[in-house]
Write a structure and sequence with these properties.
By secondary structure, the chain is mainly alpha-helical. It is 38% helix and 9% strand. A 3-stranded antiparallel beta sheet has the order 5-6-7. A two-stranded antiparallel ribbon has the order 1-4. The longest helix is centred in the last third of the chain and has 25 residues. The termini are close together.
């Protein structure tokens, strides 16, 4: 169970919103054979990539259209993100210690996700400090990717990820009065007199600051703080489950895909059956449609249409990779109920 969520989600999330990519091919006409020729840059790539691209040409038709069985699932999911009119933020935080159980990090029914996101977005700020972590540098994080990852996990029924939402804060009114001494040491004023922040991390520099907009605000991802005791193994573990955190490097260049990120899948050819069944529920645009609808309940626009098209394109490649594995090893050896 420890690797169940992490393996499936790492394969899906890292491919669907991967940043560093070395090839791209635009495709049309899925019903025609050989509509997915291998890009020229892959001519020297492993034969397995060519085999997966060949599988794209012969995907069964149900991977190209919406699954009608998903409609009631989608409806229940969207209802859980609605914000009830009687939401009491104070009582919500008082119940926080009761949220976690053996099956999920946070409640996902009876409107709980919507209430939690509303509380994160609107609760008064009492203290602001640096998070003293972060060492791997591959460009600036994209806060909308953190929220996108949370919604993606919700659609795919991955339950070990912290709720995240977009929030704007006024630097002078919401940050400076509540900033710790440590945070103030990483703040400076720019030429217009605005307070800018460069933070505390291995690569944080005073000449690379985040400054407020013309309204004095900074927009970022507000992520529910996990006040838990985690085990650390290059990844965080809580209750023998891997917690999915730090998803800010997604939503980069939508025009490129990175097949190497699927290496755990096409090399091992093992996937959780529950993950696969969930993936089979959201073809034909259902995956991105649901993310858009959840975003709309929160008043957010998280990605461009190019990004959403990229997600659907990469989902097809996941289907093709699993079909490649099944063709090579058989369904029973690829799809596992338990690990």
């Amino acid at each position: 169970m420890t690797l169940n969520y992490a393996f499936g989600f790492s394969v899906i999330l890292l491919l669907l919103v991967a940043v560093n990519v070395y090839f791209f091919y635009t495709f049309t006409g899925l019903s025609k054979p050989h509509s997915f020729p291998v890009p020229s840059k892959l001519e020297l790539a492993p034969d397995i990539f060519k085999d997966i691209f060949d599988q794209l040409n012969y995907l069964p038709s149900h991977y190209k259209v919406k699954n009608p069985k998903y409609l009631p699932v989608q409806r229940r999911l969207l209802q859980s993100f609605q914000v009830p009119s009687d939401t009491n933020t104070r009582s919500l935080w008082q119940d926080a210690q009761k949220w976690s159980n053996e099956e999920t990090l946070f409640p996902r029914t009876y409107g709980a996700p919507g209430q939690i996101l509303h509380a994160i977005r609107t609760s008064p700020i009492a203290l602001v400090d640096n998070a003293p972590k972060g060492s791997i540098y591959a460009g600036f994080d994209r806060h909308n990717s953190e929220v996108f990852a949370y919604y993606l996990a919700s659609v795919l029924n991955f339950k070990w990820i912290a709720p995240s939402t977009i929030r704007k804060v006024h630097v002078r009114n919401d940050v400076v009065p509540f900033a710790t001494a440590g945070l103030k040491m990483t703040m400076l004023k720019n030429e217009s007199g605005s307070h800018c922040i460069y933070g505390k991390c291995y690569y944080c520099k005073p000449n690379e600051t985040v400054c407020p907009d013309n309204n004095g605000e900074i927009e970022g991802a507000a992520i529910l703080y996990l006040d838990k005791q985690f085990g650390i193994h290059k990844y965080e573990v809580y209750k023998d489950k891997i917690v999915l955190v730090d998803n800010g490097k997604g939503l980069g260049n939508p025009a490129v895909d990175e097949m190497d990120i699927l290496a755990p899948l096409y090399q091992c050819c093992i996937l959780s059956l529950s993950t696969w069944l969930q993936l089979e529920m959201v073809p034909g645009g259902s995956l991105t449609d649901t993310i858009k609808l959840i975003s709309a309940t929160q008043g957010e626009t998280l990605a461009t249409e190019e990004h959403f098209r990229a997600v659907e394109r990469r989902l097809l490649k996941i289907y093709a990779t699993v079909q490649y594995c099944i063709g090579k090893h058989g369904r029973a050896k690829v799809l596992k109920s338990t690990f």
